[in-house]
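Practice problem: predict the structure.
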Amino acid sequence: MELDTSIDELCKELKLSIIGEKYHDIASMAAKENWQYTQFLEEVLRVEVDNRLGRSKNMLTKLAGFPVIKTLEQFDYTFSVGVNRKQIEELSSLIFVKKHENIILLGESGVGKTHLAIALALKAVQHRYKVRFTTISELLSSANRAKKEKKYG
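Answer:
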């Protein structure tokens, strides 16, 4: 029991919250399956990393300010005439982000521009990029306010 208390305290000190919660279960599995020490350590660390990545993605998603969550898998290419599927798939590789390039989605109302913008931004969030969703009217309003206040952020 003293060892469990010590492990719990060390996990709290190192901010390894998930290891503190799950090491009992992982240790039991390791004992049953006769894991090597390195296998046990790898699994414990993997659980912590997976949890941190998940929390990071959730936080980035919240900070992005999406009005709704849309994915590329949900997009209906049969409905949206003129949307080049191959081009969208290429954009989903996020190479344009790595090259610091912008993309502009143009088209009539209701063809899926917002859906695609959100889906591509969500894909970027899943790769741990920071994004911020905004509309052109919000962007122009912000620019006008900054101009009036002479504060160009």
